[in-house]
Amino acid sequence: MKKIAVFMLFGQSNAVGHAMPMEEKDYISEPLKNVYGLNRDPNQSYDTTELKFTGYTSFGMNLAETQDNTYSVANCLARRWQDEIDRGNSALPDLYIIHIAIGSQGLLDMWNMSREKVIKPGILGTVDVSMYPLAIHVLGLFNKYCKDNGLEPDFVGLHWRGGEEEVRRGIDYLEKIDLKNEYIKFFTSLREAVSYDFPVVVHKMPFEKVFTKEDPTGGCLATMHYINDVFAKLSAELKDTSVFDPTKCPFYDANQWDFGIFRWDLIHYLGKTNDWVSGEILKEYMERK
Hints:
- The chain is α/β, with parallel strands linked by helices and 289 residues long.
- The chain is built from nine helices and nine strands.
């Protein structure tokens, strides 16, 4: 059996790398030798019977939204992983990335567990993909893929970058549906689909300011704190679950209007922030080994 590392990035716009296009010099145009991904063309379907992994590029590897060559955590980690192997780290296995995300679509929207199967490819505003059944389908096929190809998966983890969309629902609604229990069912069913208790990492939303009326999240700080508290409870109650805190970033500064880590909208992370996150993920994996 050949050991491989597996990284999954699910969620909404901050999982896409929204509005953070790469400089052309940073494009991963030539498929990487030791990092593999699922291209949309053959894999964005509920009807496939086998997965087709190819050498990773920074375009076409998000199975949901079409927004390519962004400084997403997936693209940044792919580059860092390959560079580490190229520097001679022979202990680092090949990396397989599964990336599923659409902007403005949280656990109660296109990630909804009860949503009927829909796939309409495209850019944000056009794309319509029911991501939960797609993720369940892909993870089931990934288990088969590993068995058929003699691969032993070692999961880096599933990183969930979502929560912003739930902010719009308000605390009363989130309490009514029991958001924590919805997340427990969500992550548990994903683990069951692939038959592995992989680590789950939920990303805290580090908002601490009152937003302007022009900002769509204005007046929602209490709900953001409520959701972050749900994430904290998940880490305490759900097996092998933790919270990633972006405020640990070395250039985070609570005294700056953008905290040093956000774009002007105070919602979407800078490319350098996502690159730092990817570095922390790689560092944590290597320390585990």
